Amino acid sequence: MRKNILMIMAVALLAAWTPARSEAAGPQEAKKEQTKQEPTAKGTLQSSEKKDESFYRVDYVVSELDHGKRTNVRNFTLKVKDGERSSFHVGNQIPIAAAGGGFQYRDVGVRIDTWVKPTQDSGVSVSTRMEISSVAEPATTQAPITRSFSLEDNSLVEPGKPTLIGGIDDAASDRRYEVEVTVTKVK
Hints:
The protein is an alpha+beta fold and 187 residues long. It folds into 2 domains: 2-49, no CATH class; 55-185, Beta Barrel (Porin). Helices cover 17% and strands 57% of the residues. It has helices spanning 2-24, 26-34, and strands at residues 35-39, 45-49, 55-66, 69-81, 85-97, 103-118, 124-135, 146-157, 163-169, 175-185. The strands form 3 sheets. It has a 4-stranded antiparallel β-sheet, with no helix packed on it. It has a 4-stranded antiparallel β-sheet with strand order 5-6-7-8, with no helix packed on it. A hairpin with a 5-residue loop joins strand 1 (35-39) and strand 2 (45-49). The longest helix has 23 residues, at 2-24.
């Protein structure tokens, strides 16, 4: 027990000392931490500042049309760092009776994964993976019936301009789903 107390005190002392040491190092030491050495074509090292990070606001609009009339619109927004993935998931789990008794659960709702990368010509490449599912109208059986659609897309879009990236017809009805994306640079 005494060893544990001494160990905890040593860790706490080390943690308290480390920030004080970096603050005492001064502005020149802090600047050294912000720069890194990169090799040049001749094999020598040169100093360069950290690359600016870019963030984008990605707005998705999913429209549901029935016989050509817009009946439902859903909006989803994600903030995405250049070159990294951002995800969104919301939903419920519905119980489905298992063959041997008990229940298994199925996720229904919305799942969106997106990646953004600027291009050389001031456009933005946006990759989307989207799944939307819901419980259909009550069925005559005890098991719930679910409806779902999914979309995977890679598109080149103009920043700030809405772009249609997918249109999906429901095979079992006259419904159609359309997905629009708008990408806006925020930093």
